[in-house]
């Protein structure tokens, strides 16, 4: 059976592709959750991985939840509130937790519709580039649901409270150009240029010392929920680690010698 998440690595850049194109890549099924969580853990464990790209196979980025699995007498609507709570906690909520633990930067290359949990999946990435074919919808209310995967925390931090509430209360989709105006994505490119643009951005990150990049990402993550004094304390501790790396010494020596640095993975 084909894996729900395909992995391709080259030059320190790992591309993860959600691989259920016939369903527009839903992420709520158990095998997809397991595969995506495992792929993210693998990125952390491989010291040669410097940047990751996440995209979807086929025409869609991710349709979010598997709506057909919610229907009928055996769907989620038929389950007890307690079992549904446990299903979310031990199911799809593993994905935001795995992204929170991810040390390397990850870029969402949004090739098509990012709907519901698919929109939130894009928000879990550090950076987002969209194809002109892309659209984004925080559409849970259209199904009588709420963002069960952390979207209420994620989306306002990217687009602001007013835009996030408009998207969440209406459930209406926005275009790639609207997403650019909202600050949800940093670039909009033609479909054929999407992965090249994502790889070009990844390459700009990958040339930097990998330990410093990972520490910078962790510091910025922690700073989202901390006060200034806490961030200053964390910065001092992390900077002391950075000063002790071979890559720091190499960067300084290369700068003084006016040559290109050669960084390692540790």
Describe this protein with a few key phrases.
about 270 residues; alpha/beta; 3-stranded mixed sheet; 11 helices; about 45% helix; about 15% strand; globular
Description:
- By secondary structure, this protein is α/β, with parallel strands linked by helices.
- It has eleven helices and nine strands.
- It has helices at residues 30-45, 81-90, 94-101, 117-124, 151-159, 161-170, 176-182, 194-206, 210-223, 228-243, 246-257, and strands at 5-10, 13-18, 51-56, 106-110, 113-115, 127-131, 135-137, 174-175, 187-189.
- The protein has a six-stranded mixed β-sheet with strand order 1-2-3-4-6-9, sandwiched between helices.
- A hairpin with a 2-residue loop joins strand 1 (5-10) and strand 2.
- The protein is globular.
Describe the SSE topology.
Elements: E1 5-10, E2 13-18, H1 30-45, E3 51-56, H2 81-90, H3 94-101, E4 106-110, E5 113-115, H4 117-124, E6 127-131, E7 135-137, H5 151-159, H6 161-170, E8 174-175, H7 176-182, E9 187-189, H8 194-206, H9 210-223, H10 228-243, H11 246-257
Parallel strand pairs: 2-3, 3-4, 4-6, 5-7, 6-9
Antiparallel strand pairs: 1-2, 7-8
Helix pairs in contact: 1-3, 4-5, 5-6, 9-10
Give a nutshell description of this structure.
With 266 residues, the chain is α/β, with parallel strands linked by helices. Helix content is 46%, strand content 15%.
